[in-house]
Amino acid sequence: MDIVFNCPKCEQELEVDSTGAGSQIECPNCQETIVIPHAGTDGARTAGAPASGSIPTGGIPTLPPAQASSIATSAAAKVEMHLKVPVHNKPVTTLIARTLKPLEVTARESDKKIRVKTIRHTDCIEVGHDTFDEVVSNFLQVTGEPNIISITPMSYTHADIGSQKLLTEYAVMIVYRG
Question: Which of 26, 45, 80, 89 lies at a 20 to 30 A Cα distance from 74?
Fold first, then answer.
């Protein structure tokens, strides 16, 4: 047996299985926490019973008995719908993450200016030793993780003076607050 009642906040009509009487649910319409009333209490009725104090409104045409009986015996009238209102006992979890703010908005909200640092691989080679990783790591450590906005790897081509050839190199572009 189902209990039919209206949400006290938004007046949405709800139908819940009678085993849920007395428990708290979240109204699917207004998301307010409400208590399911017991059958027979004020404002609650069992499914199929007319609403208390409801009077058929005038002006609505009624069907002749022959048509009414054919509708009552149709396949659509025989379909029973058992809808349940979800009960949430856990805190709400976010399924869709918020998008990151654009750089322009971040710049306006921060008291620090947005800066860009490009570290090229060719600038980090000293006497045959490649110190690119150490230079990037030191810069990131000094800047601090909360101030880093983005790190973008880049590749570029430049002309080598000694060999007269085009060489492809890499770099990293770091956008940060500072």
Answer: 45
